[in-house]
Every structure is written in structure tokens, then in C-alpha cells.
Amino acid sequence: MSNFLQFFLRFGGHFMFFLLEGICFFIIIRYNDYQNRIFFSSSNTIVGYMNDRVEGVTSYFTLKRDIKALKKENAALKSQLDNVYYSDETAVDTVLDNSSQPKYSYIPADIISRAVLGNNNSIVIDRGAKHGVELHMGVVSKEGVVGVVTGVSQRYSKVMTILHRQAAISASIRRNGYFGSLVWKGTNYREMTLESIPKHVGIQIGDTIQTSGYSNKFPPDLMIGTVKSFTLGEGSNNYTIKVELLEDLLNLDYVYVVDNLFSEELESLNQEGNE
User: Fold this and answer.
1) Which of 161, 127, 137 is closest to 217 using CA atoms?
2) What radius of gyration do the chain's Cα atoms show?
3) Residue 122: which residues within 8 A CB-CB, separation 6 or more?
4) Domains within the chain, CATH numbers bracketed
5) 218 to 169, 213, 222: CA distances (angstroms)
6) Beta bridge partners of 225
7) pLDDT digits (tens, 9 = 90+) for 20-55
């Protein structure tokens, strides 16, 4: 008790000063319209600014959760596209059945590391066997094809990107359906080469290049890029077509692993054929 009295005697004058200042300030604000308007206008500005700061901090801490939810939602939406369904429609003399079932599903994943060894580019993603990822599955982004899974552990997977000297993607020209092999020559990371397109095919600058659907790794009609230029070498029967990629593969943060739900059936059939 004595300590409290000593504290009050020592600082009581200061408390009384601030109390009287507060009362005077209240009276000025309360009974003067001009000062009242200035006070509330200023206080609203300060409160609004503080709310914005608090909202910004809150949004930062919830951003990762929101991004994860959006990727999951985007994967679900990709699984609803027309090119990921298999049609059971059967026709003899009349159509007996008209039903579709999912053929592809998508697994969202974050890129956690990258490796660039000469002309060989690869990435590591944070999804593995426990998440349903398997060897040779295709990997795509929101803008196009990324690569193929070449290594899988329980929680992680290695992806050979299309910017790799061993990568070859079956791609077609949307306008006419002719397809060839899309490869990377190791020069420009935003440019690939479409080969095996015969010289009688009509090609135009700006033609859309997409997945052909002749691979069990990727659904058909996924955008890859556009024709930047094309040449026909002397004595050659095929064009050399430069394709400008839509996606910047060196600036990706997340991808989607493509799960072909019919892959086991196709592989089993191919093995029977080889035997």
C-alpha cells in the first residue's frame, strides 16, 4: 500500500495533467462542430488504415491455405473437361448406349526444386506414391505440357520436363490434325521443334499446337504453343517447325500430375501384342 502511495505521489501530477488534457479535448470535440468533424474524419482514416494493415497481415498468413484450396479446385475442374472422358457409345445399326466415364484425373503438386544439367531439365514435386503418383505419368500446367514422371518416392517425384534432350511429345496442328514429334533442341527454353510433318501439309504462322491424344500420358487437345516459323530443307520431305511455348517452364510454381485411369489396361494390351 505504501509503495502505491509513493508511486501516486511521485507521478500523480502527470496523471492529473493527462486527465485534464483528456477532459479538455473531449469538451472541444463535443461542443465544436468543426473540431468534431475533423476528429471523426481523421479517426476514420486512421481506423481504415489500421484495418487495411491488419487485413493484409491476415491475408498473408491465409494465402498458402487459399492457394492450396484453389489448386485442388482447379484439379477438380480439369477433371470435368470434355477431353478427359471416355465415351462408351456403341453403334451397330442403332446407338445402343451413350455414356461417358472419367478417363483422366489430376493431382495438384508444388515444385520444390529444379535441376538444369546442360540440355537436361528436371524438377522435383511434393507428391509421390502415397498421393497416387506413378512412373511415366504426364505432368501439365495451367498453360500446357510440362513433362513426364521419371522417379517416385513415397512423398516426392522427379519429373523430366519437355526441355530435355530425351523428351519427345506427340503433338498435332489443331487446324488440320496432322501430328508429329515435339522435341527440344537445347537453345531457346521458350521454343521447341515439331518434326515429321510432311511438306504437303498446309502450315501457317500462329497455328495452334496441341497434344495429339496418341499418348496415354496426356489428354488430347491440351494447348502447347503456336507456330513461330517453319522451313523445308533442300531435299527434305518434312518441315522443321519452330513452336513458341505458351508456358514459361522455368517460372512455374505448381503443376498437375495426369493420372490415366485406363493406363493399366492399355499397358496390358501392349504387352500382349509384344509377346
Assistant:
1) 137
2) 32
3) 114, 115, 147, 150, 158, 159, 160, 161, 164
4) 2-75 (no CATH), 111-274 (2.40.10.350)
5) 9, 7, 8
6) 209, 245
7) 767 766 676 666 666 555 655 555 455 455 555 655
